[in-house]
């Protein structure tokens, strides 16, 4: 295959023309280029990752990567981090058998093969333009050259902008706990339910909230309550991958559990409850109520309703026990 077909070159030129003619802001430019990269390489996802200290952060996401906006990985455990440190294009044709990548993370986002191209700003490699696809050996040399041209477009628009101007993930994250928020949860749930149904893989959902949280706020003040919420987020972070945990309300949280049966999810939720009790948060007055539902025992459309019903039943049992 030739490095680029005529239609691919025209598409890149159209992208540059659109950027110039419509005066897009930097965030919109990044999204347009990620979408173009995904389309021209026939990938399932387009990503712009930025290097922040010792982590790579998903700053722009398209396609199947959309629910993972703002998620991060350590620089040393990802192909993107290696791309930044070496300053050169890296391609993984089979992530399941490539020691340079985090195979578990690739399975989670459905990345069987990928390309990472460095993004350079003022002589410094500050991130990567990445595409991935579910199957191995999806990409070829022409796809690499296409991404290199698109990365040059990004470099041209980065020359007068700071890295911090690129797409913030704050609109999908809770500022207090740093967990993804309700918006991110709803997006991720829709993707995981569809994926589970399509591939007939197990998937479970856990909804939980805190028992005794109101009393902590009343007795110790809101600063103490905020510390309890941050501690809960830390427990969730240490119990499951942090990208799977969400703060969806005041003291309400959700955990999405791909490749997890309803029984396994229940065991995981019980362990979290034990950790919360052992932590003696808020002076020992904090416990949790939770509800769990799985695709295998609930229609995907009613998964959220089923988990919520179990959760409310657990809350009712807790109230009754306190009234005795």
Structure commentary:
The protein is 46% helix and 21% strand. It is an alpha+beta fold. The protein has two domains: 164 residues, GAF domain (Beta-Lactamase); 142 residues, Alpha-Beta Plaits (2-Layer Sandwich), CATH 3.30.70.270. The strands form two sheets. A six-stranded antiparallel β-sheet has the order 3-2-1-6-5-4, with helices on both faces. A hairpin with a 4-residue loop joins strand 8 and strand 9. Helix 1 runs parallel beside helix 5.
What structural category do the secondary elements indicate?
A: alpha+beta
Q: What is the subunit arrangement here?
A: single chain
The separation of the N and C termini measures: 75 Å
Strand residue percentage: 15-25%
Main sheet specs: 6 strands, antiparallel
Number of helices: 10
The CATH superfamily of the largest domain is known as: GAF domain
Strands of the largest sheet, in order across it? 3-2-1-6-5-4
């Amino acid at each position: 295959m030739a490095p680029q077909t005529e239609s691919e070159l025209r598409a890149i030129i159209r992208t540059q023309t659109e950027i110039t003619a419509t005066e897009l802001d930097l965030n919109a430019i990044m999204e347009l280029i990620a979408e173009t990269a995904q389309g021209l390489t026939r990938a399932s996802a387009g990503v712009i990752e930025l290097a922040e200290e010792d982590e790579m952060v998903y700053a722009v996401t398209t396609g199947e990567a959309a629910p993972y906006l703002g998620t991060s990985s350590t620089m040393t455990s990802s192909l993107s981090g290696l791309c930044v440190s070496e300053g050169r294009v890296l391609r993984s044709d089979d992530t399941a058998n490539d020691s340079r990548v985090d195979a578990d993370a690739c399975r989670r986002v459905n990345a069987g093969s990928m390309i990472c191209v460095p993004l350079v700003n003022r002589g410094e490699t500050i991130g990567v333009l990445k595409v991935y696809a579910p199957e191995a050996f999806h990409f070829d040399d022409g796809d690499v050259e296409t991404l290199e041209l698109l990365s040059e477009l990004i470099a041209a628009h980065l020359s007068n902008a700071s890295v911090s101007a690129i797409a913030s993930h704050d609109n999908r994250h809770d500022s207090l706990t740093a967990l993804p928020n309700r918006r991110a949860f709803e997006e991720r749930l829709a993707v995981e339910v569809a994926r589970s149904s399509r591939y007939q893989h197990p998937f479970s959902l856990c909804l939980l909230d805190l028992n005794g949280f109101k009393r902590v706020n009343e007795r110790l003040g809101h600063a103490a309550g905020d510390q309890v919420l941050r501690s809960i987020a830390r427990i969730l972070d240490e119990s499951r991958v942090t990208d799977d945990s969400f703060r969806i309300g005041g003291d309400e949280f959700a955990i999405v559990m791909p490749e997890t049966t309803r029984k396994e999810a229940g065991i995981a939720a019980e362990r979290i409850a034990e950790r919360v009790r052992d932590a003696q948060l808020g002076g020992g007055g904090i416990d949790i109520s939770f509800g769990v539902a799985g695709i295998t025992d609930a229609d995907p459309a009613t998964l959220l309703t089923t988990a919520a019903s179990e959760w409310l039943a657990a809350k009712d049992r807790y109230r009754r026990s306190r009234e005795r």
